[in-house]
Amino acid sequence: MTEYADQVSASAGPARDSAGTVDEIVNVGREQVHVVEEGPADGPPLLLSSGLGGAWFDWRPSTDLLRDRNRVIAFDRPGLGLSPAAIAAPTLRREAEILAALAERAGRPVVVVAHSMAGFHAEALARLRPELVRGLVLVDPSYEPDPRELVRFAAVATPLATATGVALGATRLSKLVGPFGRRTILKCTSRRDEPVPDTVVRSVYGRGTVLGTVIAEDMAYREQAVDLARLRERRPFPAVPLVVLTALGDVRGDAKKRKWSQGHAQLAAMTPYGSQVDLPDSLHMVQLDRPDAVADAVAEVLRAEEMS
Predict the structure, then answer these.
(1) Element (H, E) at 32
(2) What angle do CA 57, 275, 270 make, to 5 degrees?
(3) pLDDT digits (tens, 9 = 90+) for 49-88
(4) Residue 41: which domain range?
(5) CA dist 148 to 145, 224, 233, Å?
(6) What gap in Å lies between CA 115 and CA 118, rounded to an integer?
(7) How confident is the model over 152-206, as pLDDT tens digits?
(8) d(Cα 284, Cα 303) in Å, to the nearest integer?
(9) Cα-flanking dihedrals φ and ψ of residue 135, to 5°?
(10) Which residues contact residue 256 at a Cβ distance below 8 angstroms, ignoring those fewer than 6 apart?
(11) How many domains does the chain divide into?
């Protein structure tokens, strides 16, 4: 679990622009990730991790509320956003190691704010490297009560997904398929428009690399859920503050709403300092629809950590 953490590129400190923003590519072991850092350098570090196929700008409305008092670090997983293509296949261990490397880069324990599938990665980090975690905010996290797998194929299929992305990029179809897919998904998962200009969205989701990585992450989802279930049997969850935000605006039917909320309540119960908040008006992209809820959850985690 130290490969990535030991190989984060070291420097005297990244340069900040006039607005105090750092935008750079960071080495984490064999991989490289795009990092955007805002806020006071001495503020509590927050590490923001997007859901499946997400980009750093998904957090823009939430970052606007957090950056005055916190050191906000958003990043793109390998192959996503503006990060270079991945070398290794997306696995739970790889993602936890990248989070660990970025947490160590921040210089002290971090509050991890993770959306959707990234909730798997944040929980794995907390179980594997609890000394790096100050607290967690899980934003409508993925929840699988009984994950199963028949065959593990993600590692074998990842090169095919990568090749598909390369082909789409070479034929320029990615410039049509990617932005269209992003718009279609966002209409179903948020009540808001994109938080950045359309040119930025096209520049990201028009990349064949991003499309190939989205396919690879989707194929790896079930395996990561299984690996997390096995990790839960071996490693305890640390006694750190945890807030789980539950989006119910796109869950149809009262029974399904109760089931989704109850699942998230079980995640919150992993620690005696956990709590869960239902958001009836929010769709899945809570960081866009309810950035105030994200900011409130971060503040609650920091207060609880200071009092513990």
Answers:
(1) strand 31-38
(2) 100
(3) 999 999 999 999 999 999 999 999 999 999 999 999 999 9
(4) 3-147+221-307
(5) 10, 10, 15
(6) 5
(7) 777 778 888 888 888 888 888 899 999 999 999 999 999 999 999 999 999 999 9
(8) 26
(9) 175, 170
(10) none
(11) 1
> Is 232 inside any structural domain?
yes
Residue 229 makes CB contacts below 8 A (sequence gap 6+) with: 144, 147
- The pLDDT of residue 234 is above 60: yes
Helix (H, G, I), strand (E, B) or coil at 179: helix
Q: For residue 255, give the H/E element and its range.
A: helix 254-268
Angle at 150 between CA 235 and CA 255, to 5 degrees: 75
pLDDT digits (tens, 9 = 90+) for 89-117: 999 999 999 999 999 999 879 999 999 99
Q: What's the pTM value of the predicted model, to 2 decimals?
A: 0.92
Within 8 A by CB and 6+ apart from 257, the residues are: 248, 251
The helix/strand/coil state of 71 is: strand
Would residue 178 count as lying in a domain?
Answer: no
Give the pLDDT score at 11.
36
C-alpha 121/C-alpha 117 separation (Å) is: 7
Q: Is the dihedral of CA 257, 259, 265, 270 positive or negative?
A: negative
Query: Residue 175: inside a domain, yes or no?
Result: no
Q: Is residue 119 part of a domain?
A: yes
Measure the CA–CA gap between 45 and 16, rounded to whole angstroms: 16
Phi, psi (rounded to 5 degrees) for 166: -60, -40
- What CATH number should be reported for the domain holding residue 54? 3.40.50.1820
Burial (CB count within 10 angstroms: exposed 0-12, middle 13-18, buried 19+), residue 292: exposed
